[in-house]
Amino acid sequence: MKIDDVRGMTPDQLAESLLNLKKEQFNLRFQAATGQVEKTHRSNEVRKDIARIKTILRAKQAAA
Length: 64
Description:
mainly alpha, Helix Hairpins, 0% strand, ribosomal protein, Ribosomal_uL29, Large ribosomal subunit protein uL29, structural constituent of ribosome, ribonucleoprotein
């Protein structure tokens, strides 16, 4: 997910995207614990995407 894509989203879209990413992160953690994870780099990508969304969401809330 690119930062420009995140900036173009509304706060509702950001919240929904954040929820989906947290679910994916939860599933990836279980897959890693059981040794079934195929894309090991995906957990790092998800973590960084969550941070991007939280940063932009906080900035939009502060501006409002």
